[in-house]
Amino acid sequence: MDITQPYPSDISRPLVALMKGVVFRDNDPALWHLLEESQMAVRDYVRVMGLDLMLDTAEGYAWLATREPEQGEDPLPRLVGRRQLSYPVSLIIALLRKKMAEQDAAGEDPRLILSVEEITDMVRVFLPASGNEAKMMDRINTHLNKIADLGFIRRLKGEKDKIEVIRILKAFVDAQWLSELEDRLKEYQAHLEDGNDSGSADVSHTDPSGGSDMDGNIDSTPTGDRGGG
Amino acid sequence: MDVDYDTLQALRKTHPAWKLLVADHSPLIAAFLQHTFIVPNQRRLSRADLASALEDLLFTLRETQGKDAFPRSAQAYLDDWAGEDKGWLRKFYPQGSDEVHYDLMPAAEKALSWLESLIQRPFVGTESRLMTIFDLLRQMVEGTEKDVQVRIQELEKRKAAVENELALVRSGRVDILDDTAVRDRFLQVSQTARELLGDFREVEYNFRRLDRKIREQITLWEGSKAQLLADFFGERDMIAESDQGKSFTAFWDLLMSPARQEELTGMLEKVFDLAAVKALSPDRRLKRVHYDWLSAGEHTQRTVAKLSGQLRRYLDDQAFLENKRIMQVIQQIEARAVKLRDQMPQGSIMEMDEASPDIHLPMERPLYKIPVKPRITDTVTLGDGSDIPADMLHDIVFVDRLTLKQRIRTALQTRDQVTLAQILFDHPLEKGLAELVTYLTLAAEDDNAWFDDTLTHRAVWTDAGGIRRQATFNAVIFSR
After folding, report:
1. Which residues on chain B are in Cβ contact (under 8 Å) with A107?
2. What is the pLDDT of residues B15-59, one digit of tens each?
3. B327, closest residue in chain A (CA to CA)
4. Is the separation of the CB atoms in B466 and B442 below 8 Å?
5. Is 0.90 topped by the overall pTM?
6. Which portions of the chain have biased composition (kind: Polar residues) (chain A) (predicted)?
7. Fold for domain A11-66?
8. Which CATH architecture is the domain B123-137+181-336 placed in?
9. In the CATH scheme, what architecture does the domain A83-195 have?
10. In chain A, where are the structural domains located?
11. Which of A219, B217, B330, B382 could form a disulfide linkage to A98, CB 3.0–4.6 angstroms apart?
């Protein structure tokens, strides 16, 4: 009997793993090998669903991202959710990315491990001065938990105060993402200055044009709500 | 650098090896590091293992040196020794482990081998060293000779010497190395073999330094990438192409050849059987030193491969430009963030794709299930077919809490405090352990009662089977 299968059956395991999250070489070398072997088939398969296989052989991680629509193509509804990030969370992410770039430049070990205290010291300058150290640590820990949810950091087993920055951060926080953050901050800053000139106290609500501009930016992605819900 | 006053003064202040020698606890540090890393040729030890080994050593030392000899904990010493200002241990997180691991730093190893050389040296073999120098010089002279004629002459000379020796042996005249000469050579071999083992750490350290240096230059590089590569060693692997890299690769190839391995094993066997060598009572581990070389060399090999891979990735066009761009943008972000610190943007400001599609698996969640009420339809009968009297179930253990409470209250009418032991003295246990547990439960619920864990009381009773039983419990005091 010769039943022609459209796809090789050995793509199932890597495919299912990818649908559930990032695949790391170090976590399951056998699965990684399978994925590398069958990457063309996997790529074709997920393409149908408007997804793109992102595979970094050097760093050893792979994940599924929304495929950019080609010219003349209507964008498909997104299968990959988007998370809204608050300002402090975005800022900490940017600073962690900087640490990683610095570490790469220094040629140290590829594993970047920081203590919560180091991160607090790193962020302190950018947060409003507060006399309450414990409260600040609490708040930073809350932000860190959000970043851990995104899969960019994890707490070490046995040493809860130590945090490993996972190298996949590099893939998601690239120069483009960072310049976007910079642009948003620039807009916000300009908008604050405008507000101060017109003597308005509560900028974000009394200045409709500026407010809608910012909201517009955030909501412009069709699935902005999907990700949150 | 000259060995002059200023240089030495600086070295004493900054060099980890010298710092180790003049450290207050240097005998402790050196002895410990020697026995944990050098002797077993250990390349990485977890914090827990290292700390417990040190704790053991400290314990035995305190017995002979007095309790206050080493006041700090093992962990504190390790932290100190791995600290920036000491630099005797390298602290790192190996792949796949969340526990800090340690390796010895090459400088510390240097201090240790010097200390070792102070102790064991039965005699200094000078002959074998001179032979080695002759041999090395000959290799260099012959190896760099491009003139074919000269080379042929050299080889002919050696051939003549070998034939001369052959003729001597054939005529029955065999030169035998005397015992002193054997011992001289053996000591030389043994020392070189151990030094080689120590060198691996330094080789690896050199690779790390090289890697750091290259990355530093890449980061500071202002020109084009092509020019950057041209300024180094060309398109090839920068680490493998360094002097250190080439020498190490040659060593590794030599060691990895199976014929060499066999030859080494065979020769070491034979040498260890020589009477002159036996008389030295050599370290048996030397017999398998080539396996130690292999494992140490493999460690270095892996480090080099890892560093090369990372460096290539770092040099990759995209990463190279991206990193520069990233550092610039983040600087701008930081500058803005400082200005915004008292008026931070509220709500969400950025968004981020998740790392996988948004899939919910409803069937993986447990569905609502109607709780099942068991209905027992079987009838259980006693042997004679009659129904089981329900009283039996209640008879097994029934402790009347109210009665017990009443007893406590009565006892407290005449005094401010009463212990459970006193109550039990007045009212011996009738229902055994169940009754005692009920008393203890009452005490736990009673805000005016407390347990005294410095004092134990004992209760004694006779169970239904006529066996005497006893229970020990923490003293309980009831008060008004």
Report:
1. 208, 211-212, 214-216, 307, 310-311
2. 999 999 999 889 999 999 999 998 888 888 999 999 999 999 999
3. A98
4. no
5. no
6. 197-209
7. Arc Repressor Mutant, subunit A (1.10.10)
8. Up-down Bundle (1.20)
9. Orthogonal Bundle (1.10)
10. 11-66, 83-195
11. B330
